[in-house]
Amino acid sequence: MRARRSVLALCLFAAACSDAEPVGIHLKLAADGTGLLTCRSLQLVSTTGPMEGGSQGVVWNERAQLFASRGAVAKVGELRLQDMAVESPSKTSLRLSFPRGAEAKWHTLLAPPAEGRAAAATALDPARPAAAIGETIRIEIETPGEVTAVGHAPTARMVKSDKDGKRALLWIPVATARSAGETIVFDITWR
Q1: Greatest extent of the chain over all pairs of C-alpha atoms, in Å
Q2: What are phi and psi of 65, to 5 degrees?
Q3: Blockwise average pLDDT, block size 10, the chain, 191 residues
Q4: Do strands 80-81 and 84-90 pair parallel, antiparallel, or not at all (unpaired)?
Q5: DSSP state, 135?
Q6: Dist CA 55 CA 24 (whole Å)
Q7: HSE (CB half, 13 Å, CA atoms) of 109?
Q8: Are 93 and 189 in contact (CB under 8 A)?
Q9: Cross-strand pairs, 142
Q10: 40 — phi, psi (to 5°)?
């Protein structure tokens, strides 16, 4: 029993120290233009959790849920996620467009407003209640070949893009996505 607790604590510590964002979009592309899409969102919920029913001696007052959805993409060039658009100008390139501002839907469905993220942080990690959970949306595109170039425009506060082998990465802070501004365009090329 003690060994199990130690392993669980080690796993939680490792997850807390990783650079993985719990909120985001992951698209794994195949050479034929199909793919697998995973979307992870942070939601505040009011429904009771599995451990709440039948519990005694506790008053539950904060609830948060990480929700993941996965699906098959038949043709990447026809993919739309709410108001986020994907274009495939060639067999080895992709362009993703992320509208900004209060009217944009994609970011509001992935992460709650700042107050909600603070409540979720407390519910999900009581040891570090001030931790920033869901502050940044991570977009990861896994391509069939090595990524040769990535870039985003326009330059926006704290938005960052990078590449690593067959992965193209874009990080958009929720505050930046919610602020008024030009659509963020993320271009990827691979060989």
Answers
A1: 60
A2: -140, 135
A3: 35 39 93 96 88 90 90 95 94 97 94 82 73 86 98 94 98 96 98 96
A4: antiparallel
A5: S
A6: 33
A7: 12
A8: yes
A9: 28, 167
A10: -120, 125
